[in-house]
Amino acid sequence: MIVIPGEMAPFVDVPDCRVWDGGDITPLVRAEFYVPSYMAGEWAFEVMAEMPALQVCQLPTAGYEHALAHLPPGVTLCNAAGVHDASTAELAVGLMLTRLRRLDDMARAMSDGTFLHDRFDSLADKRVLIVGAGGIGQALARRLEGFECEVVLVGRTEREGVRARTDLDGLLPESDVVVLALPLDDASRGMVDARFLSRMKDGALLVNVARGGIADTGAILAEVGRLTFALDVTDPEPLPADHPLWRAPGVFITPHVGGNTTAFLPRIGRLITDQVRRWQSGAELRNVIVS
Amino acid sequence: MIVIPGEMAPFVDVPDCRVWDGGDITPLVRAEFYVPSYMAGEWAFEVMAEMPALQVCQLPTAGYEHALAHLPPGVTLCNAAGVHDASTAELAVGLMLTRLRRLDDMARAMSDGTFLHDRFDSLADKRVLIVGAGGIGQALARRLEGFECEVVLVGRTEREGVRARTDLDGLLPESDVVVLALPLDDASRGMVDARFLSRMKDGALLVNVARGGIADTGAILAEVGRLTFALDVTDPEPLPADHPLWRAPGVFITPHVGGNTTAFLPRIGRLITDQVRRWQSGAELRNVIVS
Q: Residue A213's domain spans which residues?
């Protein structure tokens, strides 16, 4: 039996899916292919212990650490790599334009009817460094193609069209905008520290649509004034209401909304449909994290 | 003699340009090719009466109505069509993303540290109707290519890739975002009235990066709540500080900053350089409004 959250059902083109959004767990005893709710708590993973027939857990997120602890032995775990690329890359463009063109300041100036006209930065003519050449980084690069800016992609290893992360020291001082779009792992945790930021040029913009843990919050606060920031993710997250980052000048913060948009349901629906069909026909699954 | 504003001088690759930013008009008696200051007042045009040798007035703006009244007989007037396309089209994308993804609300929520997480709209999967298939409309269409949205261009007349303005009645109800990127003229003045807006579907977004006079402010106010708006231009402009549009929910207003960005100087510099060389070599000028 295939068990999916109710909101995804209209987007999944597979017969006989069972909807489950929490509550009575009796029907789960027959679950073979299970999709936990998006933005769900621990309970959506703990419940796998009540699924003796479970073969596949298809996550609706790219992150999977939270599921690993609850994965029963022998169950295949797949993530949703790719599903959030469109929405997250789009937000990165929105964050860049908001900060460069001061749309955040203009939104705030509306309350007292201030006409904040001045000459601000364009994205055109800027050099944009995208750190992370995976799905989100590539989706962002495609979106920037029409903007008359120069885009440099940086990945773990050098390849066609992608510079190596070891080149960052030389690339940072030449970049007007630096976008973090890489996964959080042992190599990236705390990567954006005081030294990294000190390599960025005066007035440059750092955008983080990856994970808060990649950038050191203290180092960011120390560069407020010289650099400018647009952060969809922070450390800690959510930021406490009295955290100084909320009111630091030149810092724009969005509440981790990279992936959670109307783009989500059609894309997760297509992934689930494809994965169930693969599973039913015995074909290889995509995005396998644990098999 | 070629007379240009000081801020453009570093971007103009022509020998022996004379810089003039107002003040003593004695040197203007020899002006043959004149570029008025950007965002200048009436004085920058009135001064043409003091230029008996004037042959060409090259405006830094796309609009030219304000110059016509002061144009001496026999002087060629050229506008800056194309110079503001990059900056204005880029702002249109910024306005769309700001309103769809509620970045304006998030900017305002920062002051009290509110974590405004919810599922908002993506640009991906939306149908975007661009009214105006000239330089800005085309520049916007190019920028939207990577965003997984559907783009429909509407021009005065039907042609390859462009629908006719007479098709608007059928196109408006199918569009999630409608962007105004057409010039203000007798046909477009007041075009976006109560009837136009009533054709737009519930929750749709109207973006205006053209001219305030194209959309009726009373009609906009009457649709607040059902539709949402992102307006770089308004009527009147600037909006008085106590105007209700400033505080209408779902309305984002920027202070006519479509063209005035860092993208301006390199682009006006390239146009002036090309025009002066054409003029010096007796070749035909571009963007001629009056000859």
A: 85-253
